[in-house]
Design brief:
By secondary structure, the protein is of the alpha+beta class. Among the domains are: 120 residues, YerB-like fold, CATH 3.50.90; 122 residues, YerB-like fold (3-Layer(bba) Sandwich), CATH 3.50.90.10. The protein contains 4 helices and 18 strands. Strands 1, 2, 3, 4, 5, 8, 14, 15, 16, 17 and 18 form an 11-stranded mixed β-sheet that branches. Strands 9, 10, 11, 12 and 13 form a 5-stranded antiparallel β-sheet that branches. A two-stranded antiparallel ribbon has the order 6-7. The chain is globular, with a radius of gyration of 27 Å.
C-alpha cells in the first residue's frame, strides 16, 4: 500500500559554542595586601564587561524585532495562514471515482479544489507546499481548465497521469513544470492491490527534485484570521451536488472543523483511516460551459467574478470572489460590500459549483 505521509519541514541544527575562560590568580608569595589592591580594578573590569555585554544583547534584540521591542512575528504561509516557510508548490491531479478512494496524502494538502469533469463526475486538485507526503494519489489526467487554475501559482510542479494529445502543446507552453509517468518514471508507481486506472501514485519528493525551480508558495489572494467575522449564519452541514457526484461538509464541534464526505460516504485517509477535514470550505459559483475544443468536457472558468459561500467555525458567510486574470489570485470579500472575508487558518477546500 502507499506510504504514510511525512513532513518535509526540518529545523536548522544548532552550532555548539564555548566561551574561553581564564582563572585569575597571584604569583607565588602574593600576599593579602596585593590581593586587596587588585580587587577594585578587577571589579571595575567585570562591571564594564557586563555593561558592554548587556548593551550588545539589547542591540541584537532591537535588530531582531525592528527596534520596537516586540517579538518578531513568525512568517505566515500564504496558503494556510499558519506559521511556516513557503515551500515550492506541487500540484497533483487526483482521481475521485469511488474506486479511487480512500486517497493517500490528501490530508496533507494545503488547498484542495474540487471540480466537475465528464459525465458529471468529480476530480480533485491537491496543492502542497507547507507539508509534502511520502505518497499522493491516485493520480489522474489533466484537463484544459487546469492550466487556467494553476497559473496563479507562478510556475508550480504539476503531476498528472496524462493529457489529450491536443493539449500537449498547451501544457508545454504553460508556466509550470509538467510531470507524468513518461517524463518521470521513477516518480510514479502502480499499487497492484488496486485496479487500473485508479492505482497510479506519485512520489512527491522525487517530483519536486525533478522541478528544482518550482515557484515557492506566494500570495494568491487568501486572507486569514482566527476570529470569525460577525453576522455569520449558523450552518451544520452543506452539500454541493454534481450530476454524478456530491461533496458534503458537516461541522464537528468536537473537532472544530468540517468533516468531508464524498457521495454521502465519510471521506477518509488511506492507511490511518482518519476522517478528512477542512478548516474552511468555499463554494465558489462559476460558469462551466462545454469546452470549445472538447465538448464533452466542462471548462471550469476560474477567471472573472461571482458569488461564493464561505463556511468556517460552524457558520456560513455570503461572499463575492474576483480574479481579474489567470496570473492573479482570487480575492474573497464580504457580500455586503465589506472588506476581505478572512478564512480560518489551516486547510481550505474550494468546491466549484455551477453559477446560480
Amino acid at each position: 500500500m502507499p506510504g504514510t505521509p511525512a513532513s518535509r519541514d526540518s529545523a536548522p541544527e544548532g552550532r555548539p559554542g564555548g566561551r574561553p575562560g581564564g582563572r585569575p590568580g597571584g604569583g607565588p608569595g602574593a600576599g593579602a595586601r596585593g590581593a586587596a589592591r587588585r580587587l577594585p580594578a578587577l571589579l571595575a573590569a567585570v562591571l564594564l564587561g557586563a555593561a558592554a555585554m548587556a548593551g550588545c544583547a539589547a542591540q541584537d534584540s532591537a535588530d531582531d524585532d525592528g527596534g520596537n521591542g516586540d517579538t518578531p512575528a513568525a512568517e505566515q504561509h500564504p496558503f494556510t495562514g499558519l506559521p511556516g516557510e513557503p515551500g515550492p508548490v506541487l500540484v497533483t491531479k487526483l482521481d475521485n471515482h469511488p474506486d479511487a478512494r480512500p486517497h493517500t496524502g490528501l490530508e496533507d494538502a494545503d488547498l484542495v479544489y474540487a471540480e466537475k469533469v465528464e459525465g458529471g463526475l468529480s476530480r480533485l486538485v491537491a496543492v502542497y507546499s507547507s507539508t509534502v507526503p511520502d505518497t499522493a494519489g491516485p493520480v489522474r489526467s489533466a484537463r484544459e481548465s487546469d492550466l487556467e487554475l494553476l497559473a496563479q501559482f507562478g510556475e508550480p510542479a504539476f503531476a498528472y497521469s496524462g493529457v489529450r494529445t491536443a493539449l500537449l502543446t498547451d501544457l508545454a507552453e504553460a508556466p509550470l513544470f509538467p510531470l507524468n509517468p513518461e517524463t518521470l518514471p521513477d516518480g510514479f508507481f502502480r499499487d497492484e492491490d488496486r485496479n487500473a486506472p485508479h492505482n497510479l501514485y506519485l512520489r512527491p519528493e522525487e517530483a519536486l527534485a525533478a522541478a528544482p525551480e518550482a515557484t515557492p508558495a506566494q500570495d494568491i489572494g487568501l486572507r486569514f484570521d482566527e476570529a470569525a467575522p460577525p453576522d455569520g449564519t449558523p450552518a451544520a452541514e452543506h452539500t454541493v451536488t454534481y450530476p454524478s457526484a456530491s461533496f458534503t461538509f458537516t461541522w464537528s464541534e468536537e473537532r472544530q472543523s468540517w468533516l468531508v464526505s464524498f457521495d454521502g460516504e465519510p471521506a477518509t485517509a488511506a492507511g490511518s483511516g482518519d476522517r478528512l477535514t477542512a478548516d474552511t470550505v468555499v463554494v465558489q459559483y462559476v460558469d462551466m460551459p462545454p469546452s470549445e475544443r472538447f465538448p464533452a468536457t466542462p471548462y471550469v472558468e476560474t477567471v472573472g467574478s461571482g458569488e461564493a459561500l464561505v463556511l468556517r467555525d460552524g457558520q456560513s458567510f455570503e461572499a463575492e470572489w474576483s480574479r481579474p486574470s489567470d496570473s492573479s489570485g482570487t480575492s474573497f470579500t464580504a457580500a455586503d460590500g465589506g472588506g476581505p472575508l478572512p478564512f480560518d487558518p489551516g486547510r481550505t477546500w474550494i468546491v466549484f459549483a455551477e453559477r446560480q
